[in-house]
């Protein structure tokens, strides 16, 4: 698994020694521990030692069989019993058969074979010994200007738009302000849906190829950083990729790197063992390339900490504070500056409110193995959390633009704001795989704004644009030679031929990448926008509950309702704090309400749950049936947490009546 996803080591800033130490540890440490336990048992009793040895063999075979059983059987008990049966059968055969025991002795060389196969993988060879025939080169700009390039992560264009197709200025005033002084390329699309391939394409201006799979400088030596290194002061915040050749060494001590690597590898292995039916209870590993445990433990104190100027950490730790560190690092310099950041925002897990306060993300209800199910409420709840996080991103963008104004560089700066890819929020569809999904426009269409030096008026360009055009556009604006080979073309060069279609690439793990072609106007597809407006509205009227038939109940006081004297049932909550006493002093505010409802009387019709705080109804959400219970998944407005507040849950029993739910 690690050989197939060598990007894991890149994102962690693992050095060659880290990889080798990890391999040696995996090959030697578990056998030594098991051998030691067998030796201790043998000293106590030879019979006990033999039994322990046989039991260890059976356990290891069970662990080997469990991932296969998980893939074959959706039921957790069935897969566990299958793996256990395989282990016990092997243990019995090992105990009784000399042939089986000799076979195991021969297989003792298998770990060395695994190491050889691992090290032979092309991506691992590149990490350990480097590769690439191209040599980094630089260019001399004729009209140098300060450059700021921001790449947001997993930000579909439709998330920024209102019902007219313009930037929603009420929800995202800073994006709207940037659009008013820049050229907005309305039909821009990404060429990849995977971050660690999309970013090298942006920085190199080249389509991805199978021999340049890793996002490291040795495989992409000709990129924006190397081209401008001789004439620009580089401020590079690159948490996942490593294309800045001067940032190849990790800032973390060896011990910390190895502890973090061991923690992440252990969690990856646990995910392979735990049945799929239960894996959602584990910290997710599909939302990042490392620091998986920190996704669930991200704290308000970490993410609201003042800018420290320290080196960025990999993964998802303190994502807002990383951006603030980047903003604080921007200072006047004797030579033009290239300020670059790839921020892992608003990428999931969607766990931030617009202010930056964090809540426990739990799992994405209704999404399994990347596919959304058929429950509209669960999908809309996830998209609303995403949109709340986009509001946070808008505020961070405002901080950046204000910083450029404060140091007097905004007017003269070349500012580029883009996203690496988008996301889809359609039922029965994949949220990221455009090649297998039904709505590729939502995944490939991205916001792209380019403000040229001293540009004061906004413009909208609807021509066919791809993210590989960003590098040649930057070089064209500062009057620098565009190196060969580059697949993109400057967006401000009238001699560039118009593209007949759009390209996007997917990686099947083979010798070549698959190139997909789409219509030239793919980025103008507004079906996803219409869906978003139907769910939430736009402008000042946006609401998570707009599509609910009980939307008019939100904001009303409890005194306007008839509260039934007897409780309707109980609610079992999964929130980080079960006390339901909320305050600003808590590191994780329980803004997301997730749990199960058990009613005292069975109801055939769907139920709605009202959540009250401070005497007001703050949310009304449907609770779909889940076996003999009902599931509640919703996000409370941030205003709920302005002061210590008691939260109450009710079942809506009539047009003007509620029945209380008791926490348990």
Description:
The chain is an alpha/beta fold and 664 residues long. The protein has 3 domains: 7-129, no CATH class; 147-253 and 301-532, 3-Layer(aba) Sandwich (Alkaline Phosphatase, subunit A), CATH 3.40.720; 551-663, Immunoglobulin-like (Sandwich). Helices cover 34% and strands 18% of the residues. It has helices at residues 7-11, 16-44, 46-72, 76-96, 98-106, 110-120, 122-129, 173-179, 195-204, 224-228, 254-273, 292-297, 300-303, 319-329, 376-406, 440-444, 470-477, 527-536, and strands at 147-152, 183-185, 188-189, 233-237, 337-343, 367-368, 371-372, 414-419, 448-451, 459-461, 465-466, 501-506, 514-519, 562-573, 581-582, 592-599, 607-613, 616-623, 625-626, 629-635, 645-654, 657-663. The strands form 5 sheets. Strands 14, 15, 16, 17, 18, 19, 20, 21 and 22 form a 9-stranded mixed sheet that branches. Strands 4-5-1-8-9-2-10 form a 7-stranded mixed sheet, sandwiched between helices. A hairpin with a 7-residue loop joins strand 12 (501-506) and strand 13 (514-519). It is globular, with a radius of gyration of 27 Å. It starts with 6 loop residues before the first helix and ends with a strand. The model is unreliable at 296-316 and 576-586 (pLDDT under 50).
């Amino acid at each position: 698994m690690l050989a197939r996803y060598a990007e894991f080591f890149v994102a962690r800033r693992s050095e060659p020694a880290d990889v080798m130490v990890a391999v040696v540890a995996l090959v030697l440490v578990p056998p030594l521990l098991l051998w030691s336990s067998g030796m201790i048992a043998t000293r106590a009793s030879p019979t006990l030692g033999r039994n322990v040895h046989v039991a260890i063999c059976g356990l290891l075979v069970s662990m080997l069989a469990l991932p296969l059983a998980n893939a074959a059987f959706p039921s957790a008990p069935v897969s566990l019993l299958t793996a256990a049966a395989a282990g016990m059968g092997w243990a019995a055969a090992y105990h009784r058969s000399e042939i089986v025991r000799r076979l195991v002795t021969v297989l003792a060389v298998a770990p060395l074979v695994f190491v050889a196969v691992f090290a032979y993988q092309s991506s691992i060879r590149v990490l350990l010994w480097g590769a690439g025939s191209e040599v980094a080169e630089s260019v001399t700009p004729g009209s140098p200007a300060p450059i700021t390039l921001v790449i947001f992560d997993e930000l579909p264009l439709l998330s920024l738009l209102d019902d007219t197709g313009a930037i929603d200025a009420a929800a995202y005033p800073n994006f709207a302000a940037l659009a008013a002084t820049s050229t907005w390329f309305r039909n821009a699309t990404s060429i990849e849906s995977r971050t660690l391939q999309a970013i090298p394409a942006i920085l190199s201006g080249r389509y991805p190829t199978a021999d340049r799979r890793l996002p490291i400088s040795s495989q992409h030596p000709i990129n924006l950083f190397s081209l401008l290194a001789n004439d620009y002061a580089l401020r590079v915040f690159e948490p996942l990729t490593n294309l800045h050749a001067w940032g190849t060494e990790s800032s973390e001590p060896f011990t910390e790197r190895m502890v973090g690597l061991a923690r992440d590898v252990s969690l990856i292995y646990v995910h392979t063992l735990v049945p799929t039916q239960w894996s959602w209870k584990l910290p997710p590993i599909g939302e990042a390339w490392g620091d998986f445990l920190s996704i669930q433990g991200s704290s308000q104190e970490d993410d609201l900490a003042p800018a420290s100027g320290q080196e960025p950490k990999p993964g998802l730790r303190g994502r807002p504070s990383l951006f603030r560190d980047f903003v604080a690092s921007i200072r006047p310099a004797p030579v033009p500056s290239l300020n670059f950041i790839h921020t892992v925002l608003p990428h999931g897990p969607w766990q931030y409110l617009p202010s930056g306060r964090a809540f426990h993300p739990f799992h994405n209800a209704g999404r399994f193995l990347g596919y959304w199910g058929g429950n509209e409420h669960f999908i809309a709840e996830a998209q609303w959390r995403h949109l709340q996080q986009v509001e946070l991103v808008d505020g961070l963008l405002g901080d950046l633009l204000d910083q450029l104004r404060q140091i007097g560089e905004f007017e003269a700066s070349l500012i580029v704001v883009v996203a690496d890819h988008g996301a889809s929020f359609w039922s029965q569809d994949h949220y990221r795989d455009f090649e297998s999904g039904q709505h590729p426009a939502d995944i490939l269409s991205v916001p792209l704004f380019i403000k040229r030096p001293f540009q004061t008026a906004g413009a909208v360009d609807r021509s066919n644009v791809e993210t590989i055009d960003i590098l040649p556009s930057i070089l064209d604006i500062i009057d620098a030679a565009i190196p060969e080979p580059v697949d993109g073309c400057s967006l401000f060069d009238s001699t560039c031929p118009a593209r007949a279609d759009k390209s996007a690439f997917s990686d099947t793990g083979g010798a070549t990448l698959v190139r997909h072609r789409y219509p030239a106007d793919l980025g103008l597809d507004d079906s996803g926008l219409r869906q978003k407006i139907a769910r939430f509205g736009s402008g000042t009227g946006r609401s998570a509950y707009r599509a609910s038939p009980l939307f008019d109940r939100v904001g009303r006081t409890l005194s306007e309702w008839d509260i039934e004297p007897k409780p309707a049932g109980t609610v079992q909550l999964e929130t980080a704090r079960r006390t339901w006493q909320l305050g600003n002093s808590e590191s994780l505010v329980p803004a997301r309400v997730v749990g199960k409802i058990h009613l005292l009387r069975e109801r055939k019709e769907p139920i709605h749950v009202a959540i009250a705080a401070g005497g007001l109804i703050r949310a009304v959400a449907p609770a779909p049936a889940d076996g003999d219970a009902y599931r509640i998944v919703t996000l409370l407005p941030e205003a709920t947490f302005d002061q210590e507040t008691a939260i109450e849950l009710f079942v809506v029993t009539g047009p003007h009546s509620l029945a209380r739910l008791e926490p348990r």
